[in-house]
Amino acid sequence: MIGEVSIYGLYVPPLLLLTLAALVLCRVLNLALARTGFYRLVWHPALFDFSLFVIVLGTLAYFTRNWS
Prior knowledge:
The protein is mainly alpha-helical. Helix content is about 60%, strand content about 10%.
């Protein structure tokens, strides 16, 4: 990953941008899983949502680590 990203002169860490992207993707996945009734099979939905967020964030970080 690069050191920082400039957005209109404001320097932000790339992890912040990846976190925002992961939040959006997780929200879409949560809505899709809720519509299919998947959460009836989940023991602890909040823990599942958190682990899904960590997996999505890790995947995004892995695939964007070589951007320059």
